[in-house]
Amino acid sequence: xxETTGYSxxxxxxxxxxxxxxxxxxxxxxxxxxxxxxxxPAMFGDIKFVCVGGSPNRMRAFAQFMQRELGLAGAGExxxxxxxxxxxxxMYRAGPVLSISHGMGIPSISIMLxxxxxxxxxxxxxxxxxxxxGTSGGLxxxxxxxxxxxxxxxxxxxxxxxxxxxxxxxxxxxxSFQPRFEQVVLGDVVVRSTELDKDLAEELLACSREIxxxxxxxxxxxxxxxxxxxxxxxxxxxxxxxxxxxLEYLRRAYDAGVRNIExxxxxxxxLCGLCGLKAAVVCVALLDRLQGDQIRASHEVxxxxxxxxxxxxxxxxxxxxxxxxxxRSQH
Length: 331
Prior knowledge:
- This protein is an alpha/beta fold and about 325 residues long.
- The protein has a single domain (about 20-320), classed as Nucleoside phosphorylase domain (Rossmann fold, 3-Layer(aba) Sandwich), CATH 3.40.50.
- It is about 30% helix and about 25% strand.
- The strands form four sheets. Strands 7-14-13-10-15 form a five-stranded mixed barrel, surrounded by four helices. A three-stranded mixed sheet has the order 1-12-11, with helices on one face.
- It starts with a strand and ends in an 11-residue tail after the last helix.
């Protein structure tokens, strides 16, 4: 069975579950929120931007960054974790921006998205834009001339993705390079579209042109179920393939349009699309996977890399709100 994306009219967030209407109360267990215990429209009804990312600390830092970027009262002060009663996810608010962690991988982001989408629906939010900001492994266009004894590619570099580049996803694809998310439901495989909003991706790319100190591009993002074997790494506890097979697979991924690899985008695109949310995925590439598997950059370099998608999204939100360009902030 195949389910396709369809954006709904009126700008509302639509859930596709008829059973919710008959429930006396909807408990958003992993967010420590509920329709009886909290006034969700009052708390979240004016949210216009939702930004999600893997790390609780990163999403707290992003919310504090947005406090400063939007000139909100209390900028620089500690923000309360709205989900403090749960140890699964963290949620912070900066004006019209909601910043939420989703953990690592499809199972974790799927649980969070189900409850987040219901939250936005119960809160009667309208015209919400949702963006995943995260990290990934990049694929550089290179001419592979050989393989070293340690399994690294011997290459001649051509123009492509360097570490620190930001990739805006046009299409999320699975490990077979297909634009689909497969979910097993009651023993049947349900195939869902992973279409993302093309106009939103182009708008983000246009915003990136105002930030000159790092490269940004649009490309396919491959989503896998695993960090090690699923992404062709040679350094896990298990490895059943050769370095040559790894490089051949990554080359096929590149030829199919893949420019970076992570572990959440297909589920994110599928759930958001089905519920009428305009969504984007913006990730920084921490390394070139054709050059190695392990992330060797210093903590300082990695911290600066992780700020790059956040700076782009801050510029986008400021533009949407009619605010002028901000100076470069460090956070």
